[in-house]
């Protein structure tokens, strides 16, 4: 999914203009009531002070505009009813009221809407902000100031706001290309790879979906979104649910049937539109509670869920992380009765009875004892002992953050770095994969780099086994999430072997290399290193070989190169333009979106390339896509049609 990656780049690439707002006819409210409604709408909009990270900046900008328009409303309220509004003034203020209501709805969505949805669909949401600015601008632009008798000071302020709003409509914010690439990788890749877990950890942090409470709120927001969509946009909904599933898995929430939880739980199959009161859901399982109990923190949970939490050795409240003064569970009879009444009223069948007991697990050696012993064995003089220890470390380092912390605290990073130089390929494979797993934790990315692991990982990338090369590329990708490491990997020669892997590696190796190169090339110097290493022919080879199914990844890197003026000349050839047009003609809907984005980037900066694309038959394709393509492809096509007109005029 590349809705954000192939999103708003140049100023020309904007939402198609909405149809003009019809002017209100007649006076449905008195002057005073209209002004009171305007004032109240702004007040209720200003009540939203916390917003999703992806739209936070734009929301605060919108709130600022609303705040700056308030003096106009206040002066008019003070003058009414002594100075009645003219028909023209009334119409303009009624239009302003519609704009304020649209602003309030948008702020509400960015306040409590699904974080995953708002990030995946950031381009479309940005279009909604532009539409609100358009509405406010339309209302203020025709305001008959001479008829409404406001002060010169307020008039000057409103006119200044209007000028700034016009600029805001044209502004195209720099997109988070790193976030977009992360979305693409985790939604397209079906393999369970450590590299994907690294990306998911970063996504969870960026989306602020790491805690149990955050994920529970996100689940409820997605349920609301699904109800509002009423079966529409099924593919987008499926992606949102899939990503929620993966983020819950990373957070350690033991729930596998995410699709059922989020869309239609088994006990709600006959009434999918029913909204369950939040208090009836267990914060751990997000299912209706059948045996609610209160713990020491005062929070209520499903008995078997919280008991499983406590049996695992946890001594804090899952929701608040507050230490528990005792482990007693008190039945919450009042809530249970409310749940039973609600279920009876809404004809919801409850799942009664306890699930079958899970089979007993053999008693294992405590991890606190096992892991330090394994780390010590990494330095054994016995090669077989080392092989067994590093193999076990590889498994444990993937299992949990607690294991990774124990390995690090026991000196595991230094011991593993020492093993990277061993000629034994199996030891190399397990060692580099263990470091990849450890690098999932943010602090370890710095520790691994400080431990001088980067040049040794690059060496495995050059000369290791196929598995070693794949996981070395994934490890470099993970380490490159720290900006200082991007610089270090490039300076230490990591880019050329990644390009070689992209060209000649296994399919998995190519995917790992593409992901790592994209991340490294967010550093400008690494763009030039990649070009010198031959990334352009490697990417063209991938585009030409359909069996790799990596056209979108290749085009995302081309877009990154095309966004830098010094690199644009390396890819802006007529032959490449013809390749892009061919993808527009024959590619998948997603391929077309990606290719149109690269064409728009190159054509906006070189009209000759745009003219060549038109000569190769692009215009016919643009006309068709503008009518029947996906919503994003339509936006790209319309922007290119506008650009074509400029080039041909």
Verbal overview:
The chain has 649 residues and is mainly alpha-helical. The chain is 67% helix and 1% strand. A three-stranded antiparallel β-sheet has the order 2-1-3. The chain starts with 30 loop residues before the first helix and ends with a helix. The N terminus is likely disordered.
Brief descriptors of the model:
three-stranded antiparallel β-sheet, 34 helices, about 650 residues, single chain, disordered N terminus, globular
**Helicity, as a percent range:** 55-70%
How far is the first residue's CA from the last residue's CA?
36 Å
- Portion in beta strands: under 5%
Radius of gyration: 29 Å
Task: Reconstruct the topology from this structure.
Layout: H1 31-46, H2 56-79, H3 87-112, H4 115-120, H5 122-141, H6 145-148, H7 152-170, H8 177-188, H9 194-207, H10 212-229, H11 234-251, H12 258-262, E1 292-294, E2 300-302, H13 303-311, E3 330-331, H14 333-345, H15 367-377, H16 383-399, H17 401-409, H18 412-419, H19 425-438, H20 442-450, H21 454-463, H22 466-479, H23 483-491, H24 495-504, H25 507-520, H26 524-532, H27 535-544, H28 551-562, H29 565-571, H30 574-586, H31 589-605, H32 607-615, H33 618-628, H34 631-648
Helix pairs in contact: 1-2, 1-3, 2-3, 2-7, 3-5, 5-7, 8-9, 9-22, 10-11, 15-16, 16-17, 16-19, 18-19, 19-22, 21-22, 22-25, 24-25, 24-27, 25-28, 27-28, 28-31, 30-31, 30-32, 31-32, 31-34, 32-34, 33-34
């Amino acid at each position: 999914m590349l809705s954000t990656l192939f999103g708003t780049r140049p100023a020309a690439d904007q939402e198609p203009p909405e149809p003009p707002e019809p002017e209100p006819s007649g006076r449905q409210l008195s002057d005073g009531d209209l002004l009171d409604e305007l004032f109240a709408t702004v007040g209720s909009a200003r009540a939203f002070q916390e917003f999703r990270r992806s739209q936070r900046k734009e929301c605060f900008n919108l709130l600022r505009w609303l705040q700056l328009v308030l003096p106009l409303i206040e002066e008019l309220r003070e003058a009414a009813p002594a100075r009645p509004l003219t028909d023209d003034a009334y119409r303009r203020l009624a239009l302003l009221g519609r704009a304020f209501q649209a602003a309030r709805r948008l702020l509400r969505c960015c306040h409590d809407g699904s974080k995953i949805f708002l990030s995946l669909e950031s381009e479309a949401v940005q279009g909604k902000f532009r539409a609100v600015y358009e509405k406010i601008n339309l209302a203020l632009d025709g305001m008959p100031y001479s008829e409404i008798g406001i002060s010169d000071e307020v008039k000057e302020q409103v006119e200044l706001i209007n000028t700034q709003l016009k600029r805001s409509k044209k502004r195209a914010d720099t997109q988070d290309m790193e976030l977009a690439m992360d979305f693409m990788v985790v939604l397209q890749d079906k393999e369970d790879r450590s590299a994907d877990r690294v990306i998911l950890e970063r996504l969870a942090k960026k989306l602020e979906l790491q805690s149990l409470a955050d994920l529970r709120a996100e689940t409820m927001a997605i349920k609301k979104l699904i109800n509002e969509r009423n079966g529409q946009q099924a593919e987008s909904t499926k992606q949102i649910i899939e990503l929620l599933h993966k983020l819950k898995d990373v957070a350690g929430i033991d729930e596998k049937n995410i699709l059922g939880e989020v869309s239609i739980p088994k006990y709600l199959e006959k009434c999918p539109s029913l909204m369950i009161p939040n208090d009836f859901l267990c914060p751990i399982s997000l299912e209706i509670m059948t045996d609610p109990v209160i713990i020491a923190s005062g929070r209520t949970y499903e008995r078997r869920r919280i008991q499983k939490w406590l049996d695992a050795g946890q001594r804090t409240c899952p929701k608040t992380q507050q230490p528990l003064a005792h482990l007693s569970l008190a039945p919450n009879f009042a809530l249970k009765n409310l749940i039973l009444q609600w279920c009876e009223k809404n004809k919801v069948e409850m799942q009664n009875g306890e699930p079958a007991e899970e089979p007993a697990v053999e008693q294992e050696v405590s991890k606190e004892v096992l892991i330090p012993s394994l780390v010590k064995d990494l330095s054994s003089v016995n090669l077989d002992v080392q092989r067994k220890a590093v193999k076990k470390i590889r498994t444990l380092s993937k299992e949990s953050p607690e294991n990774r912390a124990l390995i690090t605290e026991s000196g595991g990073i230094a011991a593993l770095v020492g093993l990277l130089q061993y000629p034994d390929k199996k030891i190399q494979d397990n060692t580099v994969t263990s470091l990849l797993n450890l690098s999932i934790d943010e602090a370890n990315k710095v520790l691994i780099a400080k431990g001088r692991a980067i040049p040794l990982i690059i060496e495995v990338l050059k000369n290791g086994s196929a598995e070693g090369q794949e996981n070395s590329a994934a490890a470099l990708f993970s380490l490159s999430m720290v900006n200082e490491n991007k610089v270090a990997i490039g300076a230490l020669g990591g880019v050329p072997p990644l390009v070689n892997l992209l060209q000649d590696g296994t399919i998995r190796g190519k995917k790992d290399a593409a992901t790592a190169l994209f991340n490294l090339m967010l550093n400008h110097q690494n763009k030039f290193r990649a070009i010198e290493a031959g990334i352009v022919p490697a990417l063209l080879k991938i585009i030409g070989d359909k069996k790799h199914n990596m056209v979108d990844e290749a085009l995302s890197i081309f877009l990154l190169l095309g966004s830098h003026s010094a690199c644009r000349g390396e890819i802006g050839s007529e032959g490449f333009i013809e390749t892009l047009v061919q993808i527009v003609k024959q590619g998948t809907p997603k391929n077309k979106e990606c290719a149109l984005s690269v064409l728009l980037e190159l054509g906006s900066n070189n009209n000759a390339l745009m003219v060549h694309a038109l000569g190769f038959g692009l215009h016919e394709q643009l006309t068709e896509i503008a009518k029947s393509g996906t919503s994003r492809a339509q936006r790209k096509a319309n922007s290119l049609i506008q650009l074509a007109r400029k080039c041909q005029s």
